[in-house]
Amino acid sequence: IAFEPSVESRLVIVDAHTHEWHCEHGPFTESRFDQLPERGWTLLVQAVDQWLPQVAALKRCFDFLPRWRLDDIMISISAIDGGVGPHFDSYDVFLLQTGGTRHWQIGPLCNKSTPLLNHPELKLMADFRAEKTYDLGVGDMLYLPPGIAHWGSAASDDCVTCSIGF
């Protein structure tokens, strides 16, 4: 669905040599995926629950929260070392590992005064310090409240994570 013009999708790539982060917006073509490096990239597709009934069915697992709080279900597909960098969100997120493994580093509580890198499209933290780490395999889930710093990196080539945002 990342090929569809009406779908919001992003490709985040970290350069293995310079450690610089790059972001491209979809829609994408099949040939673009043929040009990706072997490591360090992530495809993010927003609102997959609006396109695939199997993903929309995940919402039933979160009926302990009011339905109006659900934002969407985003899916990320990553090669080894792929991720979106150190950041924090302003909403609750449940990170469900549905393929492969992802290594998570969890940092402190952040707010609008937390220093960010000067990047035109990504809100990456300037100084990330991990306080805890977790390795999620298929079926594992991690809950992050708003403002908690985190950085997930794919530990396998078949890494698929569903982010259920509230």
Structural notes for this entry:
This protein has 166 residues and is mainly beta. Helix content is 5%, strand content 37%. The protein is globular and about 45 Å long. The mean pLDDT is 96.
Share in helix: under 10%
Rg measurement, Å: 15 Å
Report the strand count.
10
Q: Could you give the order of the helices and strands?
A: EEHEHEEEEEEE
List the total number of helices: 2
Q: How far apart are the termini?
A: 23 Å
Oligomer: single chain
Strand content: 35-45%
Largest sheet: 7 strands, antiparallel
Low-confidence stretches: none
The average pLDDT is 96
Q: What is the overall silhouette? A: globular
Given helix and strand content, the structural type is: mainly beta
Order of strands in the sheet with most strands: 2-1-3-4-10-5-8
Question: Which secondary structure elements does this structure contain, and how are they paired or packed?
Answer:
Layout: E1 9-14, E2 21-25, H1 30-34, E3 41-45, H2 53-56, E4 72-78, E5 93-99, E6 102-109, E7 132-136, E8 141-144, E9 148-154, E10 159-165
Summarize the structure.
The protein is mainly beta and 166 residues long. It has helices at 30-34, 53-56; strands spanning 9-14, 21-25, 41-45, 72-78, 93-99, 102-109, 132-136, 141-144, 148-154, 159-165. 5% of the residues lie in helices and 37% in strands.
